[in-house]
Amino acid sequence: MKGNDNASPELTGLWQLLSTHKPNNKSFLYMTLLIIVATGLELVIPLYSRHLVDNINQLGFDYVVILGLVFVVVIAAISEGALAWYGARMGEHTNLSLRYSLIGRLVNTKQAILNNEHSAELSARIMNDSASVKSILAEDLIGLISGVISLIAVIVVMFLLDWRLTLVLLACIAIGALVITPLALSMRGIGKAMQDAEADLFTYVSECFKSGKMIRAHNAKQSVLNRSKGLLNNSFHHAMREARVVSMINPISNLVLMMSMVAILAFSAHWIAQGSMTLGTVTAFLMYLFGLAFPLISLGMFFSNLQKAAGAAVRLNEINQYEMESEGGNLELKKLSSIRLNKLKFEADGKLILTDINLAFSAAGLTVILGESGSGKSTLIQQLLGFYHETQSNILVNELPFTDYQLNSVRGNMAWVDQEPRLFHASIRENLLLGLTTVPSDEEIMACIEQVGLLSWFNKINGDLDILVSEQQQLFSGGEKQRFAIARALLRKPQLLVLDEPSSALDKDNEASIMSLLRHMSANIHVVMVTHNKQLISPSDHVVTLENGRISKTCQRVA
Ligand SMILES: Nc1ncnc2c1ncn2[C@@H]1O[C@H](COP(=O)(O)OP(=O)(O)OP(=O)(O)O)[C@@H](O)[C@H]1O
User: Which among 258, 284, 56 is positioned nearest to 154, based on CA atoms?
Assistant: First the structure.
């Protein structure tokens, strides 16, 4: 399929995904061998049965044949089980590799791209779309290969047994294929629409469950239900379209089998009466006919699921094409001594957000960024963390371009406290130690908790660092969450501490103690803090005022 310009883009995309994540050729070889053994043994059974039937009248039971038959049946069952297990193992390996690579891609995707995506939709894609791609390999491919081998082998064996009955059967199969093929092809659009509808539903429902309080407070329960109903109806509509096709494929396959059976019985009766056919041949033929049911259905399912997997691959390939954040240059930043923004300009979605920013941060001190809401304060401090590759060339770290350094080593010297501190649904300890490679002792953790004034909160939760932070974060008040985020930042022992409105939810006492902590720290590290609150500024602070993305004022003293 590779390099085939005529292949549909969806199928080419599926091939690309599978060729990267499929198991190695040895696994395929083992799988094919298992298929050949399982299918081959199933083909031998009717021949044994024929022999048994044709010899009963003359010689009584042939016990050697019966024993051979039992042996073949048992081995066939074992190899079929082994094949199912091996196929599932191959599929799950592919699923693991595919999902891991997608998560890796998203973790490394440029922040500017992720800003426009919905987290729940991305999660839905990783879960559902990769499952579709997996099942084509784990179940459908085995069905296809064993189906094709069975079909060819059965037809050859049947032909050798009796060419006339085989022609009758082939005519029936041709009629069935004519009806089933257009049905299987119609799954193409259905599968994609179904997966889109499921992803929309998943995204909406997860957002609603997260915002339960807001929905109640706004009396929005009914509108949530209405919208959910709409999305559910959409999903139901596509699921029913799929069910209609599947419910036609199965009975049509059965109908073809029944037609074939009736035709074969009728012709057999005629040829037995003429003496040109034995009862054993008819028995073997009927057994092969039943054996054909599974391969025929498998073939139908393969082509319909192939369309589904191809649709899923389109979406997964979109993720695979997201541009990754650069890992930076070769230099490792051991100690950050200065960072300077030089004529920095930042645009997003065609909007100029920061312009002509010239600012320097030395090894120690406190810089306060002031400005009205929307003036670009948060965007400015986020530049320091290298979230946006396009501005990194205007940032000098220790007087060298930011891009010369390994990105992780620069970030390793920094800590960031976001405007809305985010906590994971994990233990307090895991939240505190986020990203740390050297694990601090419990004493160090306690010291940070005490420094940010969280000791009484810590006693309230019985000093249990392993308690789980729920998604709704009920363990924390708004102010406690802010102080917790500051403790997490301090544990990183940063050279540059960047805080976005760190005291907006704090009372006067806590605000004063956090400011005194930050001032104390600014003797050894540089603290950059965004705030609205001019009361927090002390005469010795370096104050930068932003207006519409431009620095309108910088001063060392505030009146
Ligand atoms: N990635 C982005 N894409 C599009 N617009 C953006 C992006 N980042 C910031 N903006 C816009 O830039 C403007 C400045 O945002 P920013 O969050 O930096 O302001 P702020 O001064 O921190 O405001 P506040 O004090 O209210 O938090 C806003 O209008 C925001 O919508």
Answer: 284
Q: What is the ipTM of this complex?
A: 0.96
Residue of the nearest CA to atom 16 in ligand 1? 376
Element (H, E) at 358: strand 351-361
Q: Which band of pLDDT confidence, cut at 50, 70 and 90, is reported for residue 404?
A: very high
Distance of CA 193 to the CA centre of its chain: 18
Q: Domains along the chain? A: 9-320 (1.20.1560.10), 339-555 (3.40.50.300)
For residues 126 and 176, the answer to whether their CB atoms sit within 8 Å is no
Q: What local confidence, expressed as pLDDT, does residue 232 receive?
A: 96
State whether the beta carbon of 213 lies less than 6 angstroms from ligand 1: no
Ligand 1 atom closest to the CA of 353, numbered from 1: 12
Asked if 452 and 517 touch (Cβ cutoff 8 Å), the reply is: yes
Query: Probe ligand 1: pick from 353, 368, 372, 547, max atoms within 8 Å of CB?
Result: 353
Nearest CA to ligand 1 atom 13: 374
Report how far ligand 1's centroid is from the alpha carbon of 282 (Å). 79
373 lines ligand 1 (CB under 6 A): yes
- Whole-structure pTM over 0.80, yes or no? no
Neighbours of 3 (CB within 10 A): 6
Which residue, by CA, sits nearest to atom 24 of ligand 1?
Answer: 373
Which residues, 6+ apart, have CB-to-CB distance to 486 below 8 Å? 417, 452, 499, 502, 514, 517
Q: Convert the pLDDT of each residue in 287-339 to its tens digit.
A: 877 777 777 777 777 877 887 888 888 889 999 999 999 999 999 999 999 99
